[in-house]
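Mods, move this if it's the wrong board.
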Amino acid sequence: MNRIYNLSSRGYFILVGFSDHPQLENILFWFILFFYCLTIVGNMTIILISSLEPRLHTPMYFFLSNLSLLELCFTTSCVPQMLFNLWGPEKTISYIGCAIQLYVFLWLGATECILLVIMAVDRSVAICRPLHYVSIMHPRLCLQMVILAWGSGLIQSIIQIPSTLHLPFCLHHRVDDFVCEVPAMIRLSCGDTTYNEIQLSVSSVILLVVPLILILISYGAITKAILKVKSTAAQRKAIGICGSHLLVVSLFYCTVTVVYLQPKGQYSQKQGKFFTLFYTVVTPTLNPLIYTLRNKEVKIALKQLGKRNCISWEICR
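Not the wrong board. Structure tokens:
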């Protein structure tokens, strides 16, 4: 029978990850480090060009820069600890460190779910009501929507995490994951987790299923509006802009849904580690690449920014 321990007597957890496969850990270390560096460079670039280039001072790029800031914070909340654990034999994380990671991880994850809905609504207004877009999506409303996203994510974290941290955890205190996240912490408990599982299911429906439905409704309206447009060039532009966002949504929701809505089981638990690794490391790297490679305005802004830097450098010399 599993024993239960008090956190006041043992204030740490062991993040197991793939510690039973040392060779895989070495590969993962360099893989994660590479993607983390790309994440920092890519998302910082999006933030910089969105703020420095006047032509990108629009609601779309305001939301995109917020997404990039969110991705930077999201990866930084877990990747350094992940790299530390993969590099050496030490796999522990303090109770305080785990608690902070839980709060930040859920806060930013919930915020991203809402922010992606806001971005879908923005694209829907831009394509379905182009003549009224500027008057509808004015700067004050955009700021309020972003505050709503960050605030809602924070409230969700404050509500859910305390009940998770108060679970009676097993004596082995081994978290079978790379990071401290709610599903992994519930699995670590040796007590009754019915309330926590119901809470997780309800929050998953609210933050994953409902936003996904709203995004699909928005894109249904966008598709209908695009089909009515006679200009092929206008259709291609609309599809290009919306395609980038839809690809980001697909990558994020497909992986997160598997982790938070999958049934319990040893197979699903191991499978969930790979999906956790994907949405914490790979997706934040792909987002800026998707938006820059598929977006002509961003490419032009990058070229102009590069030319201005070259001119400034020549003048300074």
